[in-house]
Write a structure and sequence with these properties.
Blueprint lengths: L1 H21 L9 H11 L5 H52 L3 E8 L2 E8 L19 E2 L12 E6 L5 E7 L5 E5 L18 E6 L15 E5 L6 E5 L8
Length: 244
């Protein structure tokens, strides 16, 4: 309706301008001064009405294009964050096999910004390293190339303890969720019953506008660590559900 009203306004302005141009002045003797005045008017540029029409057209086109561009940009941020999750897990698994050492990857949300940290699971004395032991610089922002601002990308996992899977997602959690690979690139777990058939899922999405920060389902992207052998798969939308 707003666009239709703007178009009607443009039509009215155009008719007024056309009617004004149809009124021809009576012929008169053209002097050199008139010629200079005419040249000056011709060089004056656009009329006020023409400028108003152009501004209105630009405003209409911007209003139409802005939502689509915003959605495109948001989805690119989510895709970039998901790619970094996959790369972090694959790199940790590869380093664990290559160096014959255990590696961990932890995820958290800090000030509404998703972060990831990759590190050795044990220190030089053989003691377990926890996320609390990490230097703050170890944590990296997911999708850092896009200079994420708080609340632009929502992070959630189905992890409930180190390598322990859950049937539900926890989004925007300040608690760290960790996946650890042993020296063979497998997931060490004392009780295999704590690892469901859906595996460990790390998902990112564009958040909705509600205060509880839930994902817009169609924008979800995820990485699944599906087996205790560390096999991984990416998914989107409903493929990221814990019951798939």
């Amino acid at each position: 309706m707003k666009n239709l009203a703007l178009l009607k306004t443009i039509q009215r302005l155009y008719r007024k301008e056309a009617a004004r141009n149809l009124v021809q002045p009576k012929p008169k003797l053209i002097t050199s001064a008139d010629s200079k005045r005419e040249i000056s008017q011709n060089e004056a540029g656009f009329t006020l009405i023409e400028l108003i029409v152009v501004i209105i057209i630009i405003s209409v086109l911007s209003a139409i294009a802005a939502p689509g561009w915003l959605a495109f940009t948001n989805q690119r941020r989510v895709n970039a964050a998901n790619d970094e999750i996959l790369n972090a897990l694959q790199r940790a698994q590869s380093d664990a096999k290559r160096r014959k050492l255990s590696y961990s990857v932890s995820f958290r949300t800090d000030d509404r910004v998703p972060q990831v940290a990759t590190y050795l699971a044990k220190d030089n004395n053989g003691n377990d390293v926890t996320p609390d032991d990490l230097d703050p610089n170890t944590w990296k922002t997911l999708g850092n190339d896009f200079e994420l601002k708080p609340g632009q990308v929502l992070l959630g996992t189905s992890i409930n303890g180190e390598n322990i899977s859950s049937d539900t997602f926890e989004y925007a959690s300040g608690n760290e969720q960790t996946i650890t690979f042993d020296f063979n690139g497998n997931l060490p777990l004392k009780d295999a019953s704590n690892f469901s058939e859906n595996g460990l899922i790390i998902a990112v999405a564009v958040p909705d506008t509600s205060e509880n920060q839930q994902p817009i389902e169609s924008t979800r992207r995820c990485v699944k660590v599906q087996t205790l052998l560390g096999a991984m798969q990416i998914g989107k939308g409903d493929e990221c559900d814990t019951d798939n």
